[in-house]
Amino acid sequence: MWSSLTSQSVHLNSVKPLKGLDEYRANCVAATRAALNAGAVVRAACPIDAGPLEAAGSVDGLAYVRCPRCRSLYLRDVAPPDAWARAVAEVSRSRHAMNGFHARLTAERAASVYQPKLSWIENTLRLQGRRDSNVLEVAVEPSDFTSLLTASAAVAAVSSAAEAVVSGGGASVDAAVLLEALDRSDDPPRLLNAVHSRLVPGGLIFVTALVATGFDVVSLGFRNRYLYPPDRANCFSLAGLEQLLQGAGFDLLEVSTPGVLDVQIVNSHVEEDPATPLSAFERQLVSSSAAAQSAFQGFLQEHHLSSFARLVGRKRA
Ligand SMILES: [Zn+2]
Q1: Domains contained in the chain, CATH given
Q2: Counting Cβ atoms within 10 Å, is residue 221 exposed (0-12), middle (13-18) or buried (19+)?
């Protein structure tokens, strides 16, 4: 296994500013509530280790539970699969429509969010000696990432499928890309099994996720404005995510947390609300020099303590 560090020159305001999140976040919560009105499916056990779940907190009145074994967080109630898929698709369209009004943000996101992800996938395919891969992108349409993947010299063809329809047959693929797709899945093991069945033996799975063991998620808890359903119906611990992939039949080639935003996210919450409860140490950190904060972010990356996780798995033959 290898891990890697990422340059820290990305600024939160240029990729996912806290200001301006409110409208999209409200849409997400409303879409989740509407889907739950179709009938709630209570998640009684951890999808990773089947452990019992305990109350953890709530997001705008929607309850979250935590697995005390693996420390993953889950939205307690999800909707039946069809209603859930519709809610996820609806918020994806609303995000896209909103981003359309912010062309500058879209360009900066392409450069600082999607380009590094593409480089990661291309470099991994190259290091693994894979050429001309057929890639399955598990994403809700419209995806900003599809065109980048399609244009990549490492990729022969791209097919896209929403989480709910991955298993619906289709040709085998050499690699699958799940950018935060497990975070919004109503049934992560089912999704991984479906992806597994589409991959050729030895096929690669690329996963990114927000993890509950990362600095800003731990520090801010349920005050973290980036934690909301349906996009974050699951917030696994890093160890839980590893276990989830291994349990689905993948050997892990990479587990890393190359996040660059943890400290900035805590900072921006404090700027918005100076009364944000933090430990004395966290408060000291957010008022320390830019150099100190940057060094701390590097430490988080290096020691698997950032909230942005990246994993590569290989389907066991
Ligand atoms: Zn668990």
Answers
A1: 12-16+105-315 (3.40.50.150)
A2: middle
pLDDT of the residue at 102 = 64
Query: Ligand 1 centroid to 47 CA: how many Å?
Result: 7
Which residue type is seen at 276? T
Which residues have CB less than 5 Å away from ligand 1 (the ion)? Answer: 46, 48-49, 51, 67, 69-70
Residues contacting residue 118 through CB under 8 Å, at least 6 positions apart: 145, 148, 149, 152
Amino acid at 147: S
- Give distance in angstroms: CA of 207 to centre of ligand 1: 18
Q: Going by C-beta distance under 8 Å and a sequence separation of 6 or more, which residues neighbour residue 22?
A: none
pLDDT category at 100 given cuts 50, 70, 90 is low
Evaluated on CA atoms 267, 269, 275, 278, the torsion sign reads: negative
Distance 243 CA to ligand 1 centre (A): 9
Q: How many whole angstroms from 140 Cα to the centroid of ligand 1?
A: 26
What is the pTM assigned to this prediction? 0.94
User: 192 alpha carbon to ligand 1 midpoint, in Å?
Assistant: 16
Instruction: Give the distance (Å) from ligand 1 centre to CA of residue 301.
Output: 23
